[in-house]
């Protein structure tokens, strides 16, 4: 159970982010040490300490709105999806920026890790789902979108 102070602090961070940078995508690492917020305006990702509330880093590199964030379930690697047609992987604790970039042909709407962290699924504006190996950066396969996928058939 989180303390009322923590809940209040988190609510303040969230509302400030939404007001200031038009943020609507958050990711919290598995240890609960950091929270990240992606922006639609400045194309950056803000990294805060969950313990102190202090801004730790600002990750730059996307050239379009950051539309999805998710931490790996097995390590501190953050995946971000963007309307700049990329998915980027970031080591938020080393401060060196993007460690891998996966290019796409359409805007990337969301990104999600498989529970064991061995695959990354990305959905794109054209209705496709791309599956990447986040360790070696290889595209494993793609599910073609369209009416069948959208209808759940």
From TrEMBL:
It comes from the Eukaryota. WD repeats lie at residues 59-92, 101-133. Keywords: Repeat, WD repeat. It holds the Pfam family WD40. InterPro entries: PWP2 (IPR027145), WD40/YVTN_repeat-like_dom_sf (IPR015943), WD40_repeat_CS (IPR019775), WD40_repeat_dom_sf (IPR036322), WD40_rpt (IPR001680). This is Putative WD40/YVTN repeat-like-containing domain, Periodic tryptophan protein 2. It comes from Helianthus annuus.
């Amino acid at each position: 159970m989180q303390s009322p102070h923590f809940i209040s602090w988190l609510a303040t961070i969230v509302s400030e982010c939404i007001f200031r940078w038009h943020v609507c995508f958050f990711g919290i690492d598995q240890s609960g040490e950091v929270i990240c917020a992606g922006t639609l305006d400045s194309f950056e990702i803000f990294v805060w300490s969950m313990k102190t509330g202090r801004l730790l880093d600002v990750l730059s590199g996307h050239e379009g709105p950051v539309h999805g964030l998710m931490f790996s379930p097995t390590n501190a690697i953050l995946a971000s999806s963007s309307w700049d047609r990329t998915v980027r992987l970031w080591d938020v604790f080393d401060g060196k920026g993007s460690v891998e970039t996966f290019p796409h042909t359409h805007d990337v709407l969301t990104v999600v890790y498989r529970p064991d962290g061995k695959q990354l699924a990305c959905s794109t504006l054209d209705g496709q789902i791309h599956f990447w190996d986040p360790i070696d950066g290889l595209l494993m396969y793609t599910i073609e979108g369209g009416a069948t996928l959208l209808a759940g058939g």
